[in-house]
Amino acid sequence: MKRFRSALGALAAAMLVAACGSSTQTTVENTTTTTHGTLVEDPPLRIASLNAADFKTQLQGSTSGQQLLQLTGDPTCGVDFYYLKFYTVGAANETTISSGAMMVPTGPSGTCSGPRPIVLYAHGTQAYQPFNIADVTNTSNTEGALIAAAFAAQGYIVVAPNYAGYDISKLGYHPFVNASQQSGEMIDILTAARTALPKTFASSTTDNGKLFVTGYSEGGYVAMATQRALQAAGKPPTAVAPMSGPYALEAFGDSIFFSHVDIGSTEFAPLITSSYQHAYGNIYANATDVYSSTYPNAATLLPSTTPISTLFTNGQLPQLALFDSTAPDATTYPMVPAPLLAALQVPTVDPKNPATAIWASGFGPQFLITNDYRVSYAVDAGTNPDGALKTPATYTLAATAPTQTLRKALYTNDLRNGNWVPEEPTLLCGGENDPTVFFSVNTQVMQAFWTAVVPAPQGVLTVLDVDPAAGPSGPFAGIQLAFQTTEQQTLAALMAQGLTQAQAQQQAIASYHAGVAPFCTMAASAFFGKF
User: Fold this and answer.
1) Domains in the chain and their CATH numbers?
2) pTM for this predicted structure
3) How far apart are the C-alpha atoms of 330 and 334, rounded to whole Å?
4) pLDDT tens-digit profile of 457-481?
5) In whole angstroms, what is the distance from residue 394 CA to residue 448 CA?
Protein backbone atom coordinates (compact mmCIF):
# COMPACT_ATOMS: atom_id res chain seq x y z
CA MET A 1 0.00 0.00 0.00
CA LYS A 2 1.31 3.43 0.95
CA ARG A 3 4.65 2.06 2.10
CA PHE A 4 5.28 0.20 -1.12
CA ARG A 5 4.29 3.16 -3.27
CA SER A 6 6.99 5.16 -1.47
CA ALA A 7 9.38 2.26 -1.98
CA LEU A 8 8.71 2.33 -5.69
CA GLY A 9 9.34 6.06 -5.67
CA ALA A 10 12.66 5.33 -3.97
CA LEU A 11 13.53 2.90 -6.74
CA ALA A 12 12.69 5.46 -9.41
CA ALA A 13 14.86 7.97 -7.59
CA ALA A 14 17.65 5.40 -7.41
CA MET A 15 17.45 5.00 -11.15
CA LEU A 16 17.75 8.75 -11.56
CA VAL A 17 20.97 8.66 -9.56
CA ALA A 18 22.38 5.50 -11.10
CA ALA A 19 21.29 5.89 -14.71
CA CYS A 20 24.08 6.80 -17.00
CA GLY A 21 23.89 8.14 -20.43
CA SER A 22 21.87 7.52 -23.48
CA SER A 23 23.29 5.64 -26.40
CA THR A 24 25.82 6.85 -28.92
CA GLN A 25 24.16 4.73 -31.59
CA THR A 26 22.89 6.51 -34.66
CA THR A 27 19.11 6.35 -34.62
CA VAL A 28 17.52 6.26 -38.05
CA GLU A 29 13.97 7.52 -38.54
CA ASN A 30 11.66 5.31 -40.57
CA THR A 31 10.21 7.33 -43.44
CA THR A 32 9.07 4.50 -45.68
CA THR A 33 6.15 2.79 -43.92
CA THR A 34 3.55 3.35 -41.23
CA THR A 35 2.56 -0.31 -41.02
CA HIS A 36 1.51 -1.04 -37.46
CA GLY A 37 4.21 -2.81 -35.47
CA THR A 38 6.96 -0.97 -37.36
CA LEU A 39 9.59 1.02 -35.45
CA VAL A 40 9.60 4.77 -35.98
CA GLU A 41 13.23 4.97 -34.86
CA ASP A 42 15.54 2.05 -35.43
CA PRO A 43 17.48 1.28 -33.31
CA PRO A 44 15.56 2.83 -30.40
CA LEU A 45 17.12 5.31 -28.00
CA ARG A 46 18.68 3.91 -24.84
CA ILE A 47 17.65 6.35 -22.12
CA ALA A 48 19.27 4.75 -19.09
CA SER A 49 21.60 1.93 -18.07
CA LEU A 50 22.38 0.61 -14.62
CA ASN A 51 23.94 -2.50 -13.19
CA ALA A 52 22.72 -4.89 -10.51
CA ALA A 53 25.01 -3.43 -7.86
CA ASP A 54 23.57 0.05 -8.42
CA PHE A 55 20.06 -1.31 -7.97
CA LYS A 56 20.89 -2.93 -4.67
CA THR A 57 23.09 -0.19 -3.23
CA GLN A 58 20.61 2.56 -3.93
CA LEU A 59 17.69 0.60 -2.52
CA GLN A 60 19.59 -0.32 0.62
CA GLY A 61 19.98 3.41 1.30
CA SER A 62 16.35 3.85 2.40
CA THR A 63 13.91 1.96 4.61
CA SER A 64 11.31 1.85 1.85
CA GLY A 65 13.92 0.57 -0.60
CA GLN A 66 14.90 -2.18 1.81
CA GLN A 67 11.23 -3.19 2.05
CA LEU A 68 11.02 -3.43 -1.71
CA LEU A 69 14.17 -5.57 -1.82
CA GLN A 70 12.53 -7.90 0.67
CA LEU A 71 9.65 -8.29 -1.75
CA THR A 72 11.51 -8.58 -5.06
CA GLY A 73 14.80 -10.07 -3.90
CA ASP A 74 18.22 -8.69 -4.84
CA PRO A 75 18.63 -7.66 -8.48
CA THR A 76 20.34 -10.40 -10.42
CA CYS A 77 20.88 -8.36 -13.57
CA GLY A 78 21.61 -4.88 -14.72
CA VAL A 79 19.05 -3.26 -17.00
CA ASP A 80 19.26 -1.15 -20.15
CA PHE A 81 16.17 0.99 -20.72
CA TYR A 82 15.09 1.73 -24.29
CA TYR A 83 12.42 4.13 -25.52
CA LEU A 84 10.44 2.57 -28.34
CA LYS A 85 8.44 4.55 -30.88
CA PHE A 86 6.25 2.46 -33.14
CA TYR A 87 3.22 2.64 -35.39
CA THR A 88 -0.15 1.34 -34.29
CA VAL A 89 -3.80 2.14 -34.99
CA GLY A 90 -6.55 3.75 -32.94
CA ALA A 91 -10.04 2.50 -32.17
CA ALA A 92 -11.33 3.72 -35.55
CA ASN A 93 -8.31 2.30 -37.41
CA GLU A 94 -6.49 5.65 -37.47
CA THR A 95 -2.74 5.36 -37.91
CA THR A 96 -0.85 6.84 -34.96
CA ILE A 97 2.60 6.76 -33.46
CA SER A 98 2.74 5.23 -30.01
CA SER A 99 5.58 4.61 -27.62
CA GLY A 100 6.73 2.51 -24.73
CA ALA A 101 9.58 0.80 -22.97
CA MET A 102 11.88 -2.11 -23.64
CA MET A 103 13.94 -3.16 -20.62
CA VAL A 104 16.80 -5.48 -21.49
CA PRO A 105 18.64 -7.41 -18.76
CA THR A 106 22.42 -7.16 -18.82
CA GLY A 107 25.30 -8.87 -17.06
CA PRO A 108 27.62 -11.84 -17.36
CA SER A 109 25.27 -14.37 -15.79
CA GLY A 110 23.38 -16.75 -18.04
CA THR A 111 20.26 -15.48 -16.30
CA CYS A 112 20.93 -12.00 -17.72
CA SER A 113 22.20 -12.58 -21.23
CA GLY A 114 21.80 -15.05 -24.04
CA PRO A 115 18.30 -16.35 -24.83
CA ARG A 116 15.79 -14.81 -22.38
CA PRO A 117 11.98 -14.81 -22.05
CA ILE A 118 9.86 -11.72 -22.73
CA VAL A 119 7.32 -10.22 -20.33
CA LEU A 120 4.74 -8.15 -22.22
CA TYR A 121 3.33 -5.74 -19.63
CA ALA A 122 0.22 -3.51 -19.70
CA HIS A 123 0.08 -0.62 -17.22
CA GLY A 124 -2.80 0.67 -15.13
CA THR A 125 -5.09 3.62 -15.87
CA GLN A 126 -3.45 7.00 -16.28
CA ALA A 127 -5.25 10.35 -16.44
CA TYR A 128 -2.02 12.23 -17.25
CA GLN A 129 -1.43 12.41 -21.00
CA PRO A 130 2.41 12.86 -20.89
CA PHE A 131 2.82 9.53 -19.05
CA ASN A 132 5.83 7.56 -20.29
CA ILE A 133 6.55 4.22 -18.62
CA ALA A 134 10.00 4.15 -20.26
CA ASP A 135 11.13 7.24 -18.35
CA VAL A 136 12.51 5.57 -15.25
CA THR A 137 14.34 8.76 -14.28
CA ASN A 138 10.92 10.22 -13.41
CA THR A 139 10.32 9.50 -9.72
CA SER A 140 6.55 9.42 -10.23
CA ASN A 141 6.90 6.47 -12.62
CA THR A 142 6.45 3.89 -9.89
CA GLU A 143 4.93 1.25 -12.17
CA GLY A 144 7.93 1.34 -14.48
CA ALA A 145 10.19 1.00 -11.47
CA LEU A 146 8.23 -1.97 -10.14
CA ILE A 147 8.37 -3.99 -13.35
CA ALA A 148 12.06 -3.17 -13.74
CA ALA A 149 12.77 -4.60 -10.28
CA ALA A 150 10.36 -7.54 -10.47
CA PHE A 151 11.08 -8.68 -14.01
CA ALA A 152 13.92 -6.98 -15.90
CA ALA A 153 16.38 -7.17 -13.01
CA GLN A 154 15.52 -10.86 -12.68
CA GLY A 155 16.38 -11.71 -16.28
CA TYR A 156 13.21 -11.04 -18.27
CA ILE A 157 13.12 -8.77 -21.32
CA VAL A 158 10.25 -6.39 -20.52
CA VAL A 159 8.15 -4.73 -23.22
CA ALA A 160 5.48 -2.22 -22.14
CA PRO A 161 3.45 0.27 -24.21
CA ASN A 162 2.35 3.71 -23.04
CA TYR A 163 -0.91 3.19 -25.02
CA ALA A 164 -2.25 5.26 -27.88
CA GLY A 165 -3.27 8.72 -26.75
CA TYR A 166 -0.35 9.12 -24.31
CA ASP A 167 3.15 10.55 -24.49
CA ILE A 168 3.97 11.36 -28.13
CA SER A 169 0.77 9.88 -29.61
CA LYS A 170 -1.36 12.50 -31.36
CA LEU A 171 -4.48 10.33 -31.43
CA GLY A 172 -6.38 12.83 -29.27
CA TYR A 173 -8.05 10.24 -27.03
CA HIS A 174 -7.22 6.93 -25.39
CA PRO A 175 -9.01 3.72 -26.49
CA PHE A 176 -9.73 2.80 -22.87
CA VAL A 177 -10.82 -0.83 -22.27
CA ASN A 178 -11.20 -1.41 -25.99
CA ALA A 179 -10.27 -5.07 -26.32
CA SER A 180 -9.51 -5.08 -30.03
CA GLN A 181 -7.42 -1.89 -30.14
CA GLN A 182 -5.48 -2.47 -26.95
CA SER A 183 -4.62 -6.09 -27.63
CA GLY A 184 -3.57 -5.04 -31.13
CA GLU A 185 -1.31 -2.36 -29.74
CA MET A 186 0.28 -4.83 -27.34
CA ILE A 187 1.06 -7.11 -30.27
CA ASP A 188 2.37 -4.13 -32.25
CA ILE A 189 4.89 -3.11 -29.59
CA LEU A 190 5.94 -6.74 -29.21
CA THR A 191 6.62 -6.87 -32.95
CA ALA A 192 8.56 -3.59 -32.77
CA ALA A 193 10.58 -4.77 -29.76
CA ARG A 194 11.55 -8.02 -31.46
CA THR A 195 12.81 -5.97 -34.41
CA ALA A 196 14.78 -3.68 -32.10
CA LEU A 197 16.28 -6.27 -29.75
CA PRO A 198 19.16 -7.49 -31.98
CA LYS A 199 20.32 -3.89 -32.47
CA THR A 200 20.66 -2.91 -28.82
CA PHE A 201 23.88 -2.56 -26.84
CA ALA A 202 22.96 -5.85 -25.18
CA SER A 203 22.61 -7.68 -28.48
CA SER A 204 23.78 -10.89 -26.84
CA THR A 205 20.45 -10.89 -24.97
CA THR A 206 18.00 -12.57 -27.32
CA ASP A 207 14.40 -13.74 -27.40
CA ASN A 208 14.17 -17.39 -26.35
CA GLY A 209 10.60 -17.75 -27.64
CA LYS A 210 8.86 -17.78 -24.25
CA LEU A 211 6.26 -15.02 -23.91
CA PHE A 212 4.57 -14.05 -20.66
CA VAL A 213 1.77 -11.48 -20.58
CA THR A 214 0.69 -9.53 -17.52
CA GLY A 215 -0.66 -6.17 -16.45
CA TYR A 216 -2.45 -4.44 -13.60
CA SER A 217 -5.89 -2.77 -13.36
CA GLU A 218 -6.69 -1.49 -16.88
CA GLY A 219 -3.55 -3.44 -17.77
CA GLY A 220 -5.05 -6.60 -16.29
CA TYR A 221 -7.92 -6.23 -18.74
CA VAL A 222 -5.47 -5.54 -21.58
CA ALA A 223 -3.37 -8.58 -20.64
CA MET A 224 -6.40 -10.87 -20.80
CA ALA A 225 -7.58 -9.34 -24.08
CA THR A 226 -4.07 -9.83 -25.49
CA GLN A 227 -4.09 -13.48 -24.42
CA ARG A 228 -7.34 -13.95 -26.32
CA ALA A 229 -5.95 -12.17 -29.41
CA LEU A 230 -2.73 -14.19 -29.40
CA GLN A 231 -4.69 -17.42 -29.13
CA ALA A 232 -6.91 -16.36 -32.03
CA ALA A 233 -3.81 -15.58 -34.11
CA GLY A 234 -2.37 -19.03 -33.44
CA LYS A 235 0.51 -17.55 -31.40
CA PRO A 236 -0.42 -18.44 -27.82
CA PRO A 237 1.69 -17.06 -24.96
CA THR A 238 3.56 -19.32 -22.56
CA ALA A 239 1.59 -18.16 -19.51
CA VAL A 240 -0.50 -15.13 -18.53
CA ALA A 241 -1.19 -13.27 -15.27
CA PRO A 242 -3.95 -10.64 -15.52
CA MET A 243 -4.11 -8.66 -12.25
CA SER A 244 -7.09 -6.76 -10.75
CA GLY A 245 -8.65 -6.02 -14.14
CA PRO A 246 -12.24 -5.08 -15.13
CA TYR A 247 -12.74 -8.19 -17.26
CA ALA A 248 -16.52 -8.62 -16.94
CA LEU A 249 -17.27 -5.11 -18.16
CA GLU A 250 -21.03 -5.43 -18.54
CA ALA A 251 -21.49 -6.85 -15.04
CA PHE A 252 -19.10 -4.26 -13.60
CA GLY A 253 -20.90 -1.39 -15.33
CA ASP A 254 -24.27 -2.66 -14.12
CA SER A 255 -23.00 -2.89 -10.56
CA ILE A 256 -21.77 0.71 -10.65
CA PHE A 257 -24.96 2.13 -12.21
CA PHE A 258 -26.96 0.23 -9.59
CA SER A 259 -25.37 2.31 -6.79
CA HIS A 260 -22.14 0.40 -6.09
CA VAL A 261 -19.88 3.28 -7.13
CA ASP A 262 -16.20 2.43 -7.20
CA ILE A 263 -13.30 4.65 -6.16
CA GLY A 264 -11.95 6.37 -9.27
CA SER A 265 -15.26 6.34 -11.13
CA THR A 266 -15.15 10.04 -12.03
CA GLU A 267 -11.82 9.42 -13.77
CA PHE A 268 -12.89 6.23 -15.52
CA ALA A 269 -16.23 7.56 -16.83
CA PRO A 270 -14.79 10.27 -19.13
CA LEU A 271 -12.13 7.87 -20.39
CA ILE A 272 -14.61 5.15 -21.25
CA THR A 273 -17.23 7.35 -22.91
CA SER A 274 -14.55 9.10 -24.98
CA SER A 275 -13.06 5.74 -25.96
CA TYR A 276 -16.34 4.23 -27.12
CA GLN A 277 -17.58 7.44 -28.75
CA HIS A 278 -14.51 7.38 -31.00
CA ALA A 279 -14.82 3.66 -31.62
CA TYR A 280 -18.57 3.42 -32.27
CA GLY A 281 -19.80 7.00 -32.67
CA ASN A 282 -23.06 6.45 -30.81
CA ILE A 283 -22.49 6.90 -27.08
CA TYR A 284 -24.00 10.38 -27.22
CA ALA A 285 -25.16 12.98 -29.73
CA ASN A 286 -24.13 15.72 -27.32
CA ALA A 287 -21.97 15.39 -24.23
CA THR A 288 -24.83 16.79 -22.14
CA ASP A 289 -26.73 13.59 -22.96
CA VAL A 290 -24.40 11.97 -20.41
CA TYR A 291 -22.76 14.65 -18.32
CA SER A 292 -24.03 17.35 -16.01
CA SER A 293 -23.75 20.94 -17.26
CA THR A 294 -21.53 21.57 -14.22
CA TYR A 295 -18.75 19.74 -16.09
CA PRO A 296 -19.12 20.84 -19.72
CA ASN A 297 -15.75 19.48 -20.87
CA ALA A 298 -15.90 16.11 -19.12
CA ALA A 299 -16.41 14.13 -22.32
CA THR A 300 -13.10 15.20 -23.86
CA LEU A 301 -11.05 16.10 -20.79
CA LEU A 302 -9.02 12.92 -20.29
CA PRO A 303 -6.26 12.04 -20.69
CA SER A 304 -5.06 15.53 -19.81
CA THR A 305 -1.80 17.43 -19.70
CA THR A 306 -3.04 18.75 -16.35
CA PRO A 307 -2.69 16.42 -13.33
CA ILE A 308 -6.03 15.02 -12.27
CA SER A 309 -5.60 16.40 -8.74
CA THR A 310 -5.56 19.87 -10.32
CA LEU A 311 -8.64 19.07 -12.38
CA PHE A 312 -10.45 18.17 -9.15
CA THR A 313 -9.20 21.30 -7.38
CA ASN A 314 -10.20 23.52 -10.29
CA GLY A 315 -13.71 22.04 -10.39
CA GLN A 316 -13.30 20.55 -13.86
CA LEU A 317 -14.26 17.11 -12.56
CA PRO A 318 -15.84 15.99 -9.29
CA GLN A 319 -13.49 13.92 -7.18
CA LEU A 320 -16.12 11.47 -5.92
CA ALA A 321 -19.69 12.23 -7.02
CA LEU A 322 -20.42 10.14 -10.08
CA PHE A 323 -24.19 10.35 -9.55
CA ASP A 324 -26.75 12.83 -8.23
CA SER A 325 -27.48 12.57 -4.50
CA THR A 326 -31.11 13.32 -5.42
CA ALA A 327 -31.82 9.91 -6.83
CA PRO A 328 -34.41 9.17 -9.55
CA ASP A 329 -37.94 8.89 -8.16
CA ALA A 330 -41.40 7.83 -9.33
CA THR A 331 -42.57 11.42 -9.79
CA THR A 332 -39.85 12.21 -12.32
CA TYR A 333 -39.75 8.73 -13.86
CA PRO A 334 -43.29 7.32 -13.55
CA MET A 335 -42.74 4.65 -16.19
CA VAL A 336 -39.76 3.07 -14.41
CA PRO A 337 -40.68 0.05 -12.27
CA ALA A 338 -40.44 0.65 -8.52
CA PRO A 339 -37.88 -2.13 -7.90
CA LEU A 340 -35.60 -0.58 -10.51
CA LEU A 341 -35.88 2.87 -8.91
CA ALA A 342 -35.14 1.31 -5.51
CA ALA A 343 -31.87 -0.05 -6.92
CA LEU A 344 -30.83 3.48 -7.90
CA GLN A 345 -31.09 5.05 -4.45
CA VAL A 346 -28.10 6.37 -2.49
CA PRO A 347 -26.75 3.46 -0.43
CA THR A 348 -27.33 3.49 3.30
CA VAL A 349 -24.05 3.48 5.18
CA ASP A 350 -23.63 0.39 7.33
CA PRO A 351 -20.82 0.86 9.91
CA LYS A 352 -20.16 -2.88 9.73
CA ASN A 353 -19.63 -2.78 5.97
CA PRO A 354 -16.97 -0.24 4.89
CA ALA A 355 -17.93 -0.74 1.23
CA THR A 356 -21.25 1.03 1.81
CA ALA A 357 -19.46 4.24 2.79
CA ILE A 358 -17.44 4.06 -0.42
CA TRP A 359 -20.56 3.53 -2.53
CA ALA A 360 -22.37 6.40 -0.78
CA SER A 361 -19.44 8.76 -1.39
CA GLY A 362 -20.10 8.36 -5.11
CA PHE A 363 -23.21 10.56 -4.82
CA GLY A 364 -23.39 14.32 -4.36
CA PRO A 365 -25.06 17.56 -5.46
CA GLN A 366 -22.19 18.36 -7.85
CA PHE A 367 -22.43 15.12 -9.81
CA LEU A 368 -20.94 13.99 -13.12
CA ILE A 369 -23.59 11.76 -14.80
CA THR A 370 -27.19 12.90 -15.10
CA ASN A 371 -30.14 10.95 -13.73
CA ASP A 372 -31.68 10.75 -17.22
CA TYR A 373 -28.65 8.93 -18.54
CA ARG A 374 -28.39 6.72 -15.49
CA VAL A 375 -32.04 5.70 -15.82
CA SER A 376 -31.61 4.92 -19.54
CA TYR A 377 -28.76 2.57 -18.67
CA ALA A 378 -30.63 0.99 -15.75
CA VAL A 379 -33.78 0.34 -17.77
CA ASP A 380 -31.76 -1.61 -20.31
CA ALA A 381 -29.99 -3.54 -17.55
CA GLY A 382 -33.34 -4.36 -16.01
CA THR A 383 -34.74 -5.55 -19.33
CA ASN A 384 -31.61 -7.48 -20.37
CA PRO A 385 -29.90 -8.41 -17.10
CA ASP A 386 -26.34 -9.65 -16.97
CA GLY A 387 -26.28 -13.26 -15.90
CA ALA A 388 -23.59 -12.69 -13.27
CA LEU A 389 -25.88 -10.31 -11.35
CA LYS A 390 -28.99 -12.47 -11.48
CA THR A 391 -30.20 -14.48 -8.50
CA PRO A 392 -29.12 -17.21 -8.79
CA ALA A 393 -26.19 -16.16 -10.95
CA THR A 394 -25.62 -17.92 -14.26
CA TYR A 395 -22.37 -16.08 -15.10
CA THR A 396 -23.32 -15.70 -18.73
CA LEU A 397 -23.74 -12.39 -20.50
CA ALA A 398 -27.20 -10.90 -20.93
CA ALA A 399 -29.55 -13.33 -22.61
CA THR A 400 -30.51 -10.62 -25.09
CA ALA A 401 -27.89 -8.17 -26.35
CA PRO A 402 -28.31 -4.75 -24.73
CA THR A 403 -29.57 -1.76 -26.68
CA GLN A 404 -28.46 1.24 -24.60
CA THR A 405 -25.31 2.36 -26.41
CA LEU A 406 -22.84 2.49 -23.50
CA ARG A 407 -24.03 -0.84 -22.20
CA LYS A 408 -23.82 -2.28 -25.70
CA ALA A 409 -20.19 -1.12 -25.93
CA LEU A 410 -19.43 -2.73 -22.56
CA TYR A 411 -21.05 -5.92 -23.82
CA THR A 412 -18.90 -5.83 -26.97
CA ASN A 413 -15.71 -5.47 -24.93
CA ASP A 414 -16.64 -7.80 -22.08
CA LEU A 415 -14.11 -10.64 -22.07
CA ARG A 416 -16.86 -13.22 -21.58
CA ASN A 417 -18.19 -12.26 -25.00
CA GLY A 418 -17.74 -15.00 -27.58
CA ASN A 419 -17.35 -17.72 -24.92
CA TRP A 420 -13.56 -17.53 -25.16
CA VAL A 421 -11.60 -19.66 -22.69
CA PRO A 422 -7.86 -19.58 -21.85
CA GLU A 423 -5.79 -22.52 -23.00
CA GLU A 424 -2.47 -21.49 -21.41
CA PRO A 425 -1.59 -21.40 -17.69
CA THR A 426 -3.42 -18.34 -16.34
CA LEU A 427 -3.10 -16.67 -12.93
CA LEU A 428 -5.85 -14.23 -11.93
CA CYS A 429 -4.65 -12.13 -8.99
CA GLY A 430 -6.37 -9.43 -6.93
CA GLY A 431 -7.62 -8.47 -3.50
CA GLU A 432 -11.15 -9.29 -2.37
CA ASN A 433 -11.71 -5.90 -0.71
CA ASP A 434 -10.69 -3.85 -3.73
CA PRO A 435 -12.94 -0.74 -3.87
CA THR A 436 -11.78 0.29 -7.34
CA VAL A 437 -12.05 -2.86 -9.48
CA PHE A 438 -14.40 -5.16 -7.61
CA PHE A 439 -12.88 -8.61 -7.16
CA SER A 440 -16.26 -10.35 -6.93
CA VAL A 441 -17.67 -8.76 -10.10
CA ASN A 442 -14.55 -9.31 -12.20
CA THR A 443 -12.05 -11.93 -11.06
CA GLN A 444 -14.59 -14.21 -9.42
CA VAL A 445 -17.06 -13.79 -12.29
CA MET A 446 -14.40 -14.89 -14.78
CA GLN A 447 -13.48 -17.79 -12.51
CA ALA A 448 -17.12 -18.90 -12.35
CA PHE A 449 -17.60 -18.35 -16.09
CA TRP A 450 -14.59 -20.55 -16.88
CA THR A 451 -15.77 -23.16 -14.41
CA ALA A 452 -19.51 -23.43 -15.05
CA VAL A 453 -20.18 -21.99 -18.52
CA VAL A 454 -17.17 -22.64 -20.76
CA PRO A 455 -14.87 -24.74 -18.58
CA ALA A 456 -11.15 -24.09 -18.93
CA PRO A 457 -8.90 -27.12 -19.44
CA GLN A 458 -7.96 -28.89 -16.24
CA GLY A 459 -5.16 -27.12 -14.35
CA VAL A 460 -5.08 -24.03 -16.58
CA LEU A 461 -6.69 -21.53 -14.18
CA THR A 462 -5.25 -20.35 -10.85
CA VAL A 463 -7.00 -17.63 -8.83
CA LEU A 464 -5.16 -15.74 -6.09
CA ASP A 465 -6.80 -13.45 -3.54
CA VAL A 466 -3.94 -11.67 -1.74
CA ASP A 467 -6.28 -10.67 1.09
CA PRO A 468 -8.39 -13.73 1.95
CA ALA A 469 -10.75 -13.40 4.92
CA ALA A 470 -9.78 -16.89 6.06
CA GLY A 471 -6.11 -15.96 6.24
CA PRO A 472 -3.06 -17.02 4.22
CA SER A 473 -2.92 -20.51 2.79
CA GLY A 474 -1.71 -22.43 -0.23
CA PRO A 475 1.28 -21.87 -2.52
CA PHE A 476 1.04 -18.04 -2.31
CA ALA A 477 0.62 -17.88 1.47
CA GLY A 478 3.82 -15.86 1.87
CA ILE A 479 2.55 -13.15 -0.47
CA GLN A 480 -0.85 -13.11 1.24
CA LEU A 481 0.80 -12.79 4.66
CA ALA A 482 3.07 -9.99 3.44
CA PHE A 483 0.11 -8.05 2.04
CA GLN A 484 -2.04 -8.43 5.14
CA THR A 485 0.90 -7.53 7.40
CA THR A 486 1.50 -4.39 5.37
CA GLU A 487 -2.19 -3.49 5.68
CA GLN A 488 -2.02 -3.85 9.44
CA GLN A 489 1.17 -1.80 9.66
CA THR A 490 -0.36 0.97 7.58
CA LEU A 491 -3.44 1.14 9.78
CA ALA A 492 -1.28 1.27 12.89
CA ALA A 493 0.86 4.05 11.41
CA LEU A 494 -2.21 6.11 10.49
CA MET A 495 -3.71 5.71 13.94
CA ALA A 496 -0.38 6.70 15.48
CA GLN A 497 -0.81 10.02 13.66
CA GLY A 498 -3.94 10.66 15.70
CA LEU A 499 -6.58 9.32 13.33
CA THR A 500 -9.46 7.28 14.66
CA GLN A 501 -9.73 3.69 13.55
CA ALA A 502 -12.55 4.62 11.17
CA GLN A 503 -10.54 7.48 9.67
CA ALA A 504 -7.48 5.27 9.30
CA GLN A 505 -9.56 2.56 7.60
CA GLN A 506 -10.96 5.11 5.15
CA GLN A 507 -7.49 6.30 4.18
CA ALA A 508 -6.20 2.75 3.89
CA ILE A 509 -9.07 1.59 1.70
CA ALA A 510 -8.52 4.54 -0.64
CA SER A 511 -5.06 3.19 -1.48
CA TYR A 512 -6.00 -0.51 -1.42
CA HIS A 513 -6.12 -0.98 -5.20
CA ALA A 514 -2.66 0.52 -5.71
CA GLY A 515 -1.38 -1.42 -2.72
CA VAL A 516 -2.29 -4.80 -4.20
CA ALA A 517 -0.12 -4.16 -7.28
CA PRO A 518 3.37 -5.07 -6.01
CA PHE A 519 2.12 -8.23 -4.31
CA CYS A 520 0.26 -9.49 -7.39
CA THR A 521 3.29 -8.57 -9.48
CA MET A 522 5.51 -10.76 -7.33
CA ALA A 523 2.95 -13.54 -7.57
CA ALA A 524 3.06 -13.20 -11.36
CA SER A 525 6.85 -13.38 -11.28
CA ALA A 526 6.75 -16.55 -9.20
CA PHE A 527 4.07 -18.02 -11.47
CA PHE A 528 6.06 -17.31 -14.64
CA GLY A 529 9.15 -18.83 -13.06
CA LYS A 530 7.50 -22.26 -13.26
CA PHE A 531 7.49 -22.31 -17.07
Assistant:
1) 2-247+417-428+437-463 (3.40.50.1820), 249-413 (no CATH)
2) 0.96
3) 5
4) 999 999 999 999 999 999 999 999 9
5) 9
